Amino acid sequence: MPFTPLVVIPVYDHQHAIGAVVRGVIDSGLPCLLVDDGSHAGCAQVLDALAAAHAPQVTLLRLPANQGKGGAMLAGFAAAAGRGHSHVLQIDADGQHDPGDIPRFVALARQHPGAVICGIPVYDASVPKARLYGRYATHVWVWINTLSLQIRDSMCGFRVYPLAPVSGLVGEETIGRRMDFDSEILVRLFWREVAVINLPTRVTYPSDGVSHFDVWRDNVRISGMHTRLFFGMLRRAPRLLWRRLRGATPA
Fold first, then answer.
1. What is the rounded CA–CA span in Å between residue 207 and residue 80?
2. 3-state SS class at 154
3. Would you state the pLDDT for residue 214?
């Protein structure tokens, strides 16, 4: 299958930052799908204008109600598959990722078309220390649930997915639809022997000052996700350990 990536950006009320992100994607030359995850009127109008001004490179998919980041990405995967794309490049709408790095992600995905290319954040001084240190709890759980250190950072939303294994996964299993999405889908793809290749990328905190992370609800949701994955890991442990013993990198 030809290498035909599509940039998918899940958007929920990031009207102040999304324009710069879209301009960066346009500079990369890739087609872009904006998934409006039930944004309010101000953001919805900005998205309409961006799609109209940059058609046909930029298109818009509007969800009737907020689904969460994972729900928006699942809708984006389905749309990408329907359009015949081979890969989806995910980048966040809040401006924390550098669209100038898109060519680096795409080049690595082209070299390794069966792998997930996953960003490793390189932070500047803007990162809140509580968020930075809190990420390590998830890192440790992911390492436990994969019996591997291969996934260096499961929470970075800048990554490239090979669409075929993703479509197979989401057609057979339930994936978290909110802030648990990024980590859960990586672990489940790893369990299916999809390689994860890590790529450092600069991350700032967010340019529009908007974060949709709910400290209570999302931490409870993420804790539940790690618990489910732990019990899933237990029944997969012999196979995961055998992969480690034979020194094989999932591919």
1. 27
2. coil
3. 52
